[in-house]
Structure formats: C-alpha cells, structure tokens
Amino acid sequence: MAKTIRSSGHEALRDALIAARKTAALTQEQLAWRLKCHQSFVARVESGERRIDVIELIVLARALGIEAVELLSVAEGATEPDHRI
Predict the structure, then answer these.
(1) What confidence tens digit (pLDDT) does each residue in 2-58 have?
(2) Most buried among 8, 31, 56, 81, using CB within 10 Å?
(3) CA atoms of 84 and 81, how far apart (whole Å)
(4) SS3 string of 47-64?
C-alpha cells in the first residue's frame, strides 16, 4: 500500500495551505483561533506530520477565505497518475 503522507500530492497541498495562510496574513495561532483548535494542529498539518480529511479541508479553506476546490486542484495536479492507495 502506498503512503499518501509525504507524497507529492500531500506536499503540494501542504504548501498550498501555507501559502493561503500567508496570503491571508494569518499566523498559525490566528488560523487556529478561527478553526477553534490548538496552534499545534495547524503546525502539524503544515509540517506534513498530519493528513487532513475532506471535511477538514473544507473547514480549513473556509477559515482561509478560499474555495476548497482550489486546494484540491493543487493536490490533484501534483499527485502521480499511478499513485496507489
């Protein structure tokens, strides 16, 4: 079974989330406040230690003021065509 964490798609999604947070001029702590979670959650997502599920992606996108499909598009474009689950 291939791992999705640390895959090219996961790394691209992580980079897109970081870029979106910085574009929104938010610190990890400010984003965490919007998400009603701890800053460590944001740090683990951004460092690649933690994957996020689809619902979390939607909530993150809303907190960042962007559409989830923008983030999905980045991950899709970076995921290898033959990536296995």
Answers:
(1) 567 789 999 999 999 999 999 999 999 999 999 999 999 999 999 999 999 999 999
(2) 31
(3) 9
(4) HCCCCCCHHHHHHHHHHH
